[in-house]
Structures are given as C-alpha cells and as structure tokens.
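Have a close read of this protein, sequence plus structure tokens, and explain what the tokens say about the fold. Thanks in advance:
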Amino acid sequence: MNQANNTYTNTYRDLFQNYVEGLAIPDSIRNKILSDVFLNQNPSFYFFYPKLFSDEFSVEERVIDDLCIAGYLYYEATLLTDSFIDEKRKDDFLTISVCQEETIKILTSHFGRDSFFWSLWNERKNEYIKGISIEKRMISSNIVETSEFELLADLKSALGKIAVDALYVLSEKKNSITYEKILKSHRSFSIAYQIYDDIKDIKEDYENGQFNFAYYNLSKKHSGLSIDEANKIFYIKGYAAELFRIGISYLDSALDEINTINLPLWKEHLFSTKSTFLKAIREINDYLEFLSSGIYLSITKKQMPYSTQIKIAKKFILTRQNDDGSWHEYSNQGGISDIWATAFITTKLDKKSFPSFSIKKALQFLNRNVSAIDLWGYNSTWICDADSTSLSILAFQLQCSEMEGLSYKNWLNFQNENGSFSTYNNEKELLSSLNDPQISNVKGWCNGHGCVSAVAFYNLALLKKYNKEFRKLYAYFNDPKNIKAYWWTSNIYTYYYLALTYKFIKEFAKLSEIVSFLLEIQNNNGSFSDNYGENLFYTGLALEILLLSPRKYLDNIEKCVAYINSAQFDDGSWENSNALLIPNPDENIIENKVREVGRLGVNIRSREFNRLFTTSTVLNSLELYGKR
C-alpha cells in the first residue's frame, strides 16, 4: 500500500472508531465491532472506500465521512453474517444487528425514504444474494467458464458498488455515462481482486469447502493431488504467476475505463494494486530461480593451470547468460537484478578475449531496457537509479559500443550540490515501488553515497565532457569520510573505482594513498576481507588495484593470486561473496553491525546466488595479472 493510502487509513479508521465509541451499546458488542483482529486483518481501503470515488462527484466532505463509516459498518456486518451462516457463530447475531441498524441510520440521514438510492440499494442486495447462490452451485460444478467467474466476482462486490451509487445520487452532477464507466471499472477491479483473494486463500478455501478459481484451474491440470501438493505445484509450475498476470490485465481494463474521469484516488488505488500483483510475480519467479540456482553450482575446489582457470571461468559466465542477453544476480527487496547485474558483469568482460557475441547480447539487452526517462534501474520492473545507469554507461564505454536513448541530463540530476550522486532522487516514487507498509522513510537511500558516486566519478573521467560535474566529485572525494561505501560490506568497492579514476587522470599520489591503505589491510594469506571475513569479491577488486602499479607490489600481488588460485571450483566459479548490503531505507550512516544474509527485506546482506559478481571480478583481475 502506498503512503497516501496509509494516511487515509489512519484518518478514516479513527473516524470509524470514534463513531463506534460514541454509540450507546454494550461494551461486549462495541469490543466486537472494534476488534483489532478484524480491523487489522481485512483490507484497510474499506475504511475509506467511498472516498476513492469522491473527486468526480460534488458531495460535501462531512457526508463522505458518514458514507465511509456506514460502508465499513455494513462491510463488517456482511462478513460477520457469512461467518454466522457458515460457522453457526450465533454470538455474532447482536453485533450484526447493531452494524446494520447504524448503517441504515446514517444512510437515512442523507437519503429520504423515497430516494432513488434505495432502489439501487435493493438492486445491490439482490446481486449479492445471487452471487452467493452462484458460488454454491460452482462448488459442485465440473465446468466453470471464465465468464461465470467474472459474473461471480462482480456480484460478490455488489455492496462495494453502493459507494458509487450513493455519491452518484447525492451529486448534482448526475452524468450517467461517467457513472456507468466507473461501475465498469469497479467490475474489472473486483475480478482482479477476487483472483488475488483466491490465490492467497487457495488452501484455506479448499479446507472450508468454498469455490476457489485458482484451485479449480489447477485441479483441471493436476487431479488427485493433496492440497499441500497442489499448493506447491501451483507456484512451482508458474500457475500463480500466470493468474497474477491475468489479474493485471483486468486492472489495466479498470484503468482504461476511467482514463478521462477525475478519479485520482481510485486510479492511485488501481496502480497500487497493480504494483502488488507485479511484486508478487517478481517474488514468485525470483524464489524459483533462487531455489534452482544452487543445484548447478559445484562444491569441489580444484587448483588448475592459469590457462585452464581462465577458460573454464569464462565458460561458467557464458553458460549462465540468459537467452535475452542478461545475467541474473542478487535477490533482495527489489527482486532479482537483471539490468544492474548485467551492466556490472559486462564491465568485467575483456572485449578482446571474451566471446564477442555474448558481450553484444548483453549490450543489446541493456539498450532494449532503457526506461521511459532514458535511464536504467536495478531490474526491468524497478524504478531508475543512478548506480544502474552509471554501470550501464560504463559497460558501453569499456566495450567501446554505442548507447541508445540515454539521457545524460537525467543521469546528472542524481548529482547533489556537494558533488555526490544519490542512488535514488524521488522519495515518493521509491516508496511506491517498495510498496511496503512497514517502510515510510527512505531518506537514507536518497542521500549521496560514496560507492555510487565513485562509479559516476570514473564515468565522468572517461567521458571527458562534464568538467563542472567532475570537479564537484573530485572535491567531494577529498574528504576521507566520503570514501565509505553505502551498499557494500567494504570500502574497497569505493576505492576500486577511485583508483581507476586517479590512474586515468594521472593523479598518482592519490592512487598511491589507496594502494598503501590496501597493503595495510591485506591478510597474511593474500586475501582481503570485509566485515564478515575473507572475501573473494573484494580480493579480486584489490588485486586489480595493485596491478595498476605491478612492479612495486609484486609480492603482494603473487600472494593475492595464490589465494585466488586455491579457491576456484571445478566448474570455473568462485564462492559467492554476499558483498551487497541492503541497509534500512532510513539509514543515513552505515554502522558496522552484524547483518544476516537474506533473500528479501532490508537490514540484510543480499545473497549472490549465482556467483557471477565474484567470478567475473576475479576473472577480470586474473586476466589483467596475465597481461602484466
């Protein structure tokens, strides 16, 4: 749910609670109506459902408030009635009566006895009753057409349509065409939301003997399964993701119906629901890929001649490239990365020795996935950011290939006054993309970050045409505190891109400072560590920095290479380093605290499940070592 909806939820929930608190009813009934279990477990947008449609109608705010209270009372009465019928919960009878009586009292205060509204009210009640009848028939039916399911979803949402009916009758602007378009939009949304409910409740509905469209479709393809087996296959075989995609098509239809109508809150609600569906698809697909990746990774280490090492490392990277040219790596709150990962890995491939067709496919993938604002994001379903764009630019520069559609102006909009680059620069857009009710502050992710700024710094040096922006970054990195990496578990990442930049612009004194720092922190066995121990990813980056002045640091280089040689698996890969840090979004300064490796969430280290960042980085450093 987005931040705006959170605000409305709090406001209208308070209105509802205050109204119920003021009723002269027994505390037992009041407590039942205001049960935290009920209020927290059901969709929060029902607290303000009439408000979602209010902008198109001329209705006073106080009246809309009353409609929201009445709507939630009736919603609660309806759900309690279902429980009363299905589960014989007779103790709910009085609570249902109070909710229904209060609903009628509120509505009667706004609609006279002879109002056209009551005709619509009766029509919606009859639709709802018809829906219950159809649903019962479907339970025992062998064949259920999609059109029947669509009708069922629309009829079951009949009470929600009363919100639109009420505003239409109360409004002086009685445009019947607009009214019908809103109802059609509501119908499409209701079908999409019924799909969502059925996916979510597939096991619960089966156990309660209720019709479930998701289970019905699954049972037609796989009969005779237990519900637990069916539930697993539903996700593993991709049926859940496909149903979510169908749901998205209904949401798109709902948006199309009201494209020219002034309903910003309803449109925002539809977009938010669509984001929820997209996130679900992403999480399902990511989890399946995440599970399968480990099956193909070797666990046997083998020391090999240099030429063999290079050959099989390249083969490992090549065989994990997808048909569309992308590589997938890291799994976190944004899902699995394809764009950012592909860009980074491509920067590590030697354009003279790595198969050119593979590099060409990777660059074509990046060109195809430039966004509407001519930038790149973490993956093809995520918002744009400075780092994914910087690494994409760098991939094209290092591979001497032409970019299509990039807007340097939009990329430079991520630069701050102090010279740094922020990963994200639009808090509202980021919150919407995260779509997490637990996250309300993303200022940390929108600050300037040393690691992100260092990649941009190297790009600006290679581009040789943004002198003002380059000078601001040069000054920014004169302050040692700005070296710190934000998204990584070691500052070696930032030092790596600074070293490349200083080498390119012939700032050898600054390069020597970085090398001196590395020599101080190199382990006795030649490796380099992050906060969690020896780390091959940072060892590869550090080796490349040392190779910028190979004659001076030969012993350190040889120790580093020996460590790398001893750690390669027989499939050509090196152990995943889990070097990517996902801080809390409100975290401005990275603290050296222990963060567990995880697949989703924040305040974690993200799992490098395909070993591609580490393998491509180590391969690159070994190839440079061979050319010294």
Remarks:
- The first helix runs from residue 3 to 21.
- The radius of gyration is 29 Å.
- The longest strand covers residues 329-332.
- The chain is about 60% helix and 5% strand.
